[in-house]
Amino acid sequence: MLKRINRLFSKILNPPKFDFQDFHEEAGYILTYRMNLFLGVTLLILGILLFVLYGPLFSLMSFICFLSIAFFFVRMRKTGKHKDAALYINLLGAVFCLITLYGIQSQPHLIDGLWMIINIFYTFLTVSKNWGIFISCLHGFALSGFYLFFFETQIELIQQLNEGQIISVGINVFLCFMIILYLSWQNIKTNKNAKVKLEEAQETLQNQYDIILKQNEEKTMMLKEIHHRVKNNLQVITSLLRLQSRELEHVEAISKFKETINRVIAMSLIHEKMYQSEELAKIDMEEYFKSLARDLMSSYHIGYPIDIQIQCSIETLGMRPIVPLALIFNELFSNSLKYAFANNKEAKIEISLHQQTKNEFQLIYQNNGTWKKPSRPDSFGLELIKTLTEQLEGKLTFTQTPQTRYEFQFLDLDN
User: Residue 93 phi/psi, 5° resolution?
Assistant: First the structure.
């Protein structure tokens, strides 16, 4: 028999389990459930005492509150929905507090303030901050107005308290403090559990961060190794092409081999800059253009000074556009070295790469030399420049007066 009673009591005290979005919502559900159970039992006892001491009229309000709480209590056990129940009960509690305060003038209102505090505290814990502020203001104005107009009457009623009324006041005060104690304990427990959950979440996040950091470091090392190996392989290809070119006797064939070698060097330099860069997916464009210009001048054995001016407002670019841009630059710069400055003692090359709008980029290449016309209008170098420009969704404008000038317009170059 005792075991059955204990199981029944445990079943009623512990709420059924439901799936909630987060821990705070679950804590609000548990608090609302147990507080409703606590208030229901309290109001039932209070209603019985008021019925015995003062008759049905004084106990009616307590029994109405008890029935409302019982309804929502059963509903919560079936559905797990608690916010509307908590809001309804808090609003109902506020209304009953006001009715009791202003509707019963023949009784002293010594403990109404404590019930209002419970109502406010409970609203903050189970509903929301905004509703808690609303209930606080409502009770604050109601209590201030009541004592402003009925203070003297209340003093007289307090002085005329009989023994039964004093006992009733004492019971109410005890119940109020027990409820406040319970709410405080639940709040502390919820905060403690939330802290534990937060620490667990932080530990999980830290572990995941450490794993991701380690994986990122491994991938960084792997990417550096890949860029380094690609660069080495391209250098091997360059060496093979140079060795092969030594067997050639035809001047034009040797020149074509040299141009191919320079194109491979341009791509090899990209991978060299990539693994030297802090951001493995991007390189410094201005520094790259300068390095490539030095390599090309060394390759063609230029014996005269060239004033090279490079202006680049774009700090870095990714892998997708850099290869076509590098090959375009290689073709233009090589052609300048081969054809433009034969009789020019003040050779000058200007390169600028700027972002004009959010999605528009401009590359300008110009020199002050006079280019020798190519032997064929559809030469490989010019066709390569046009193809690479189309690959980058760009447009090319070429002018030869007063200086040789190539102007490129590109879209979304940084993507």
Answer: -65, -40
Q: Are 361 and 354 in contact (CB under 8 A)?
A: yes
* 262-307 confidence digits (pLDDT tens): 888 888 877 777 667 666 567 778 888 888 888 888 877 777 788 8
d(CA 298, CA 316): 25
pLDDT digits (tens, 9 = 90+) for 93-114: 888 888 888 887 777 888 888 8
Closest CA to 140 of 163, 165, 112: 112
pTM of the predicted model, to two decimals? 0.52
Cis peptide before 15 (omega within 30 of 0): no
In CATH terms, the fold of domain 304-415 is: Heat Shock Protein 90 (3.30.565)
Residue type, 270: I
Interatomic CA distance for residues 395 and 389, integer angstroms: 7
Query: Residue 268 and residue 270: Cα distance in Å, rounded?
Result: 5
Model pLDDT for residues 217-258, shown as the tens digit of each residue: 777 788 777 777 887 888 888 888 888 888 787 888 888 888
Every domain of the chain and the residues it spans: 15-160, 304-415
As a whole number of angstroms, the longest Cα–Cα distance in the chain is 129
Question: Measured between alpha carbons, how far is 317 from 283 in angstroms, rounded to an integer?
Answer: 6
Distance of CA 343 to the CA centre of its chain: 61
Tens-digit pLDDT profile for residues 359-377:
788 889 888 876 655 555 5
Please state, in angstroms and rounded to a whole number, the distance separating the CA atoms of residues 297 and 349: 12
